[in-house]
Amino acid sequence: QPKRQAAFGSVGRRIPYRVLHVINQDGESLGNMHRAEALRLMDQHGLKLVLLRENVEPPVYRLMTGQQIHEEQLKRAEKKKASPKPGVVQKELSFSSAIAKNDLETKTKQIAQWIEKKHHVKVTIRQAK
């Protein structure tokens, strides 16, 4: 059974660090503590430890409920969708509303080629005078 990639670095008991900076579910800092003490807190309150920032010393973990984790994953997915993907080319095409039929067909073929190549296409139509 393949493991599903989590949106967070680590959730739950697999914590590779000895000393952690822990934040409670309300966003208040509980300070630096040993891994065992953080796990004890997690078990007492029925919460999960989620890695927020790994690149700081000590790494920052937050106690979260399952609902909070789900909401955070949804937020991150929305942000990822909204941000432009690297390597994706955006093509822009602009023409007048008084375009000739032959020119329109040519530009339509060009747009179809760009879409086949997985480019994002933006079409602007200007009103003719």
UniProtKB/TrEMBL annotation:
Stretches assigned to the Translation initiation factor 3 N-terminal domain: 12-78
GO biological process terms, semicolon-separated: mitochondrial translational initiation; ribosome disassembly
GO molecular function: ribosome binding; translation initiation factor activity
Keywords: Initiation factor, Protein biosynthesis
Gene3D superfamilies xrefs: Translation initiation factor 3 (IF-3), C-terminal domain, Translation initiation factor 3 (IF-3), N-terminal domain
GO cellular component: mitochondrion
Family recorded in the similarity comment: Belongs to the IF-3 family.
Protein name per Swiss-Prot or TrEMBL: IF3M factor
Organism encoding this protein: Myiagra hebetior
Organism placement in taxonomy: Eukaryota, Metazoa, Chordata, Craniata, Vertebrata
Gene name linked to the record: Mtif3
